[in-house]
Amino acid sequence: MSKDVYVFAEQRDGNVQKVSLELLGEATKLAGALGEKVVAILIGQGVKAKAQELITYGADSVLVIENDMVKEYVTEPYAKAVCKVIKDCDPSIVLYGATAIGRDLAPRVAARHHTGLTADCTKLEIGAEEGGTKLLWMTRPAFGGNIMATIKCANYRPQMATVRPGVMKIVHDTGRKGEIKDFKVDFVPADMNVRIRKVVKEDKKAVDITESKVLVSGGRGIGSRDYFAELGKLAKALGGEVSSSRANVDAGWIEKERQVGQTGKTVRPNLYLALGISGAIQHLAGMEGSDLIIAVNKNETAPIFDVADLGIVGDLKAIVPKLTDAVNKYKAAALK
């Protein structure tokens, strides 16, 4: 009988990716609802030292697969390794990050095990079907983001999903205990169906808005590219970063790396300021998990107010400068 929640713990250069830590935290909730355990799959060469880290983030046990063939990610050997784990351990659920690697690996594994795969999920939960069977309910944007679809895989196992980075909360407990196991996979030369001739790495100096605790986000309502400078002053005062809705990215007013939403990045800052953003479902999918949402919009019926903790109906161009000034005065007074 299928059992336990498995997480593919993606690593690059020996560093576990943040999305995998997020998935482990979510997996503990799912496993708790099922009365099962969380198992991490860690694949690479010289990565066993990272296994204990995975336990502190939620894994009850870690299966470590080490081999020279999986030092760098290559689809075929990685797929063979994960398929061997599924065949031998029969998990109920397998989760992957919706990264370049996860999006390549998960469909291949799903096809080989003749099971379903729900991609780019923004919500996971355990729900009951008729007869009391507990299934994984996987929610993702559909039809261009105009609806949120909840998908179930009732007849095949494992239930599989890829989850967007930044959606789930990380849970860390350095006191957690778990088990680390070496898992053997018999790799053969034929498994390496491509040859890596050279690995080229570049350091790209880019802002990662998913790491910011405060985001000042502008929508179409800011009116022009130039007004991002004003948002930048507020972001600086708050110690945060500027972000944007898709409309401004499409207009060429701001770079893609600062886009929040279904086709941008999913963020969970402590404070999210939505300025001139109407609140289309595509945008909400990327920021509704923020701790505190403050919205400013001229339209009192804008959907953004449905998710905002504090809503201000008014002209953002009158409000933003005053807010920036108030924050700076407060900080100056605090230093005296």
In summary, what is this structure?
By secondary structure, this protein is α/β, with parallel strands linked by helices.
Textual characterization of the structure:
The protein is α/β, with parallel strands linked by helices and 336 residues long. Helices cover 29% and strands 25% of the residues. The protein contains 9 helices and 17 strands. Strands 7-11-6-1-4-5-12 form a 7-stranded parallel beta sheet, with helices on both faces. Helix 3 crosses helix 4 (100-112) and helix 5 (228-238) packs parallel to helix 9 (316-335). The longest helix has 20 residues, at 316-335. It is globular.
Show the helix and strand layout.
Layout: E1 5-9, E2 11-12, E3 15-16, H1 18-34, E4 38-44, H2 51-56, E5 61-66, H3 75-89, E6 93-97, H4 100-112, E7 117-121, E8 123-128, E9 134-142, E10 147-151, E11 159-163, E12 179-182, E13 214-218, H5 228-238, E14 241-244, H6 246-250, E15 271-275, H7 281-287, E16 292-297, H8 304-307, E17 310-313, H9 316-335
Parallel strand pairs: 1-4, 1-6, 4-5, 5-12, 6-11, 7-11, 13-14, 13-15, 15-16, 16-17
Antiparallel strand pairs: 2-3, 8-9, 9-10
